[in-house]
Amino acid sequence: MIDVLISGGGPTGMMLAGELRLHGVDVLVLERDAEPSPAVRSLGLHPRSIEILDQRGLLDRFLAHGQTYPSGVGRFAAIEKPPVPLDTAHDYVLGIPQPVTDRLLTEHAAELGAQIRRGAEVTGLDQDDDGVDVELADGSRLRSRWLVGCDGGRSLVRRLLGIDFPGEPASTEWILGEVRVTMPTDELTEISNRVRRTHKGFGIGPSGDGLHRGVVPASSVSEDRSVPPTLEEFRAQLRAYAGTDFGVHSPRSLSRFTDATRLAERYRVGRVLLAGDAAHVHPPLGGQGLNLGIQDAFNLGWKLAAEVEGWAPDALLDTYAAERRPVAGEVLSLTRAQSELLSPEPGPQAPRRLLTELMDFEDVSRFLAEKIAGTGIRYDVGDGPALLGRRLRDLPLSRGRLYDLTRRGRGLLLDQTGALSVAGWTDRVDHVADVSSELDAPAVLLRPDGHVVWIGDDQDDLCAHLPTWFGPAR
User: Fold this and answer.
1) Coil, helix or strand for 172?
2) The whole model's pTM is what?
3) What region holds the FAD-binding domain (predicted)?
4) How far apart are alpha carbons 456 and 471 in whole angstroms?
5) Same structural domain for residues 337 and 427?
6) How many CB atoms lie under 10 A from the CB of residue 265?
7) What's the pLDDT tens digit per position in 99-124?
8) How many domains would you assign to the chain?
């Protein structure tokens, strides 16, 4: 029996596979497509996702293939404002095409020992108290202790579980194309900028490798979004909005996306869970979709591993949905708001003008920036100081830096007193007696995902909190 089957080999599935393998969990990723998709549906990573990569020692790989840009609020709803500083050691956005992100996360999972099977489509599932039986399109069957559906917005796993996916259906559709053009760059840029003054959902510009990435509203919402648009359809919509098709030809990819906004009513049924787009879909405004999925996987991985390894406290796995579903709900609200603010109609333009003025206040800009960056999340782990429940940014220590100590995906007690102990939990929690001039607390206990779940200097109080997240002492 396999410990965990993951349906879907995108960034969420591969991030989860890597997290599980850090704990020695037997993992098999089932990906329907025989070959990786070349489509660039996501263009970058936000600060919290960048922190996650750094926590696992992956960031240098990604930086070698991307380009950094200032973070901050930037262009919330295409409102141009200067960036504001965020409380992170990685205050930038990493521009990197999704196929590269997919490849690097896949390589990481494989290096750690995850099994990856392409051309393997899940078509059915049954579960009992001990495991999950999964049927594949070729008629074969697999059995695992757990199954995680990371199979996208049209998730078959979610539908087989009968989980409702309420929200708003698509009212607008866009065509996304990676193409070559014949029009000179200066002329193309001038036309694109002119069109964007009144149509914020339009844009075309260089994307590297001699290609241009274009986005244009479609003429209508298609009945079957899985059917890719044709080059002629893309050309026709470019002409309709810009008066020219820019000489587009030789597409590397053509795809559709919509403003459909939905959130799964449940993230778990028995031994089957959902993560990434299988649990939530929304317009790509703010570029949060891929980032949200990676962060789902980062939250879920260590908790599911604890279940497999047998040390998980009661209800630990349930905190995955309790913590991540509200985060997804906030992202959906944020993208809904941006969608409204992008409308050229007089009604939405009034609050847009008001927000444009409000964003001149640094606190307002920082609030919005933290929402997009993912650095403002605070999980409910009990009452206490403002840092409790938040992720701890990378800190300089007297003997290095914090994130260098988080590579193995274990809990960590950062003890500035040098007088505390994690005896009884040393197989799950590392104890680091070190100091940082940037940490205003005697000691903090971090979960494997870097969120603070205890602050103090009392050994008895620490021992009372350790079982909540790391099970009983051994």
Assistant:
1) coil
2) 0.93
3) 2-332
4) 20
5) no
6) 12
7) 999 999 999 999 999 999 999 999 99
8) 3
